[in-house]
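PROTEIN ENTRY
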Amino acid sequence: MADNAVPHAPLAHDKAAPAVDRIIFGPDDVDLARSPLAGQFPQETYVLGAFNPALTVLPSGNLLLMVRVAEALRRPVFGGMVHAIRWRTDTTEGRYGLDGWPLAEVDTSDPRKFMLKDGGWKVMALTSLSWLLPVELAPDGLSVVAVHYDKAVAPEGSWQCYGIEDARISRVAGHYWMTTCSVSPERHSTTLYKSDNGLDWTFEGMVLDHQNKDMLLFEGLIGGQFWAQTRPLGDLYFAYPPGSPWRAGPAINLASSPDGRHWQPRLEPGIRPRAQTIATARMGGGAPPILTEVAGRRGWLTLWHGVEPSGIVGIYRTYWTLLDEREPWRQIAASEAPLLEPRADLTAPLEHLMYLRGVVFTTGIVDAGRHFIVASGEADLACRITHVPKDRFTA
């Protein structure tokens, strides 16, 4: 049995609640006058997206979203150059400043970034800088209780000078642990924060210094060890043999740690893309695995995203797998049908802000009795809350 696993007992508010699927927080809900970037440079900014939120339960019983706020320049192109925001120490105005590149030297086809030409390899800069905003919700996740601007997590060093992205929160061994993706020219790393109350976070350092977009801690110890899912990235993968059930490409790997800070990759493989379906040609971790029971089996429920190649970024959907309680590299139940798909109707009221379509990116889960409360980013734009009935999980 998993040691010190966080009990996901049903929350008291659940009384056969119906399935719910809605946008709960978006760009128009962010007050940029209270942003960490406010007053740092004269150019106007706007919220490109408020999305991909970590989800956890606070000691009060309320829920917490740790929302990624991507703050971008209203007019990034001026003076014949395209500009990016960067945390820096060489500015006279403040901690944040602007860098500019001549338009002839960049490719701006993706609204989220621009690629530098003729570098010999892929080099990019972002059109926004991301910081993390704690948004407190009611226990059912369907109304905002408070927005904690004073608790925002923002860049504090050169290792995250382009921002902090896509937090995930797990409760392990009596503490809240938050993994984040820190972006900089130095490295594309995974950084760790720790909290005793889910609101006040202490920076614990860098835990993975290679490019890794989705590190998720299991919510409980296994054999006295911390466990995590990781997803290293690269541009080169070795082929599986002809006839293999697996497809070469980004996959979900496993790592373990004695203390949550020092990680060793596991020899056992994790979840890999299947050869027979293009819908999961690329995959990555979504919600931190929780110990629960679905499909008549008990194990670690993990929600992850599969990406079908299409257009610039592809179509993102959410899938699920149940992992063995003691040997989490063993899959004991799963479904090849997606659990969540992108929903254009949810973002229809935000049509004036849309710049990307076909993406649901799940980032958190809470057990609420007869259903799970699932948090996702929708269209790289807003935060989506879904009540998923447990009878949806059939293998």
About this structure: The two ends are 22 Å apart (CA to CA).
